[in-house]
Amino acid sequence: MNRSDREERVRRLMVAGPPVLPPDLAAEAVRRGARMLRRRTYARRVLWLLLCAAAVVFTVWALTARPWVEPPSDTTPPLTGW
Amino acid sequence: MRSRHAFDDVPRAQEFRAYVAGAGGRLLHTATLLTAEPRDANPRAQRLLTLALARTYACWDRLHGEDPYDHTRRYLMIRFALSTLRYGGRLPFRPPPGGPLAGLSPQERLILVMRLHEGIGEDQTAALLGLPAERVRAVQNRAMAVMLRPAPGSAPAQGARRHGAVMTGEAR
Predict the structure, then answer these.
(1) CA distances (Å), origin A19, targets B33, B67, B82, B91, B172
(2) Tell me: the pLDDT tens digits for B24-50?
(3) What is the predicted ipTM?
(4) Chain A: which residues have CB within 8 Å of chain B?
């Protein structure tokens, strides 16, 4: 018995008696899938919100602290009585 | 803010239901072969299929022309493979006898179903499971040898020939 014959016999053993699809399976899949979508959308929304909040906080901090301005020197004593 | 109904909107759900009505029977058959449950008592296969279909529904708008059947089937296979991996290659339950593949291990069932029932190519099967193609072929040969083994109690000459078949099947 060659390989394709054996494959055909095994295939025939497997196709016998397909099960009956329960009628509420599609509805349950839609319910779960919709919940999955809803969660994904909420998660995406929360992440965007966090990103925006971080950007705003950084801008405010940069404008108040001005980290690019050279800090006034406090190692040299003030020049007086010259 | 979109309403709650935006997630189960009518056209998508209708398309999806039509798809399940067309392909669901075959997919459930595949799932039932994987779990080796009898055809009229297959709660685990139904659960596996429901989760795979839910995922396809969630990705429905992003399929971009991809066959939804392929999508569901791939997730079904991956999920089954992962669930057996988690329990050391065995299932966390003992399936009730009745399915045609009940005498095989989960990996043998998976490969036999993918190769023969679904007709997925050897290389594609190997890629999906992360196994070398030779290993897929060896497991398939072993599984076919178990499936075609004559029923116990038949003539001993057949048993000797069957032993030879198993040996050559594993040598390949």
Answers:
(1) 10, 23, 24, 21, 34
(2) 999 999 999 998 888 888 888 999 999
(3) 0.72
(4) 6-7, 9-11, 13-22, 25-26, 28-38, 40-41
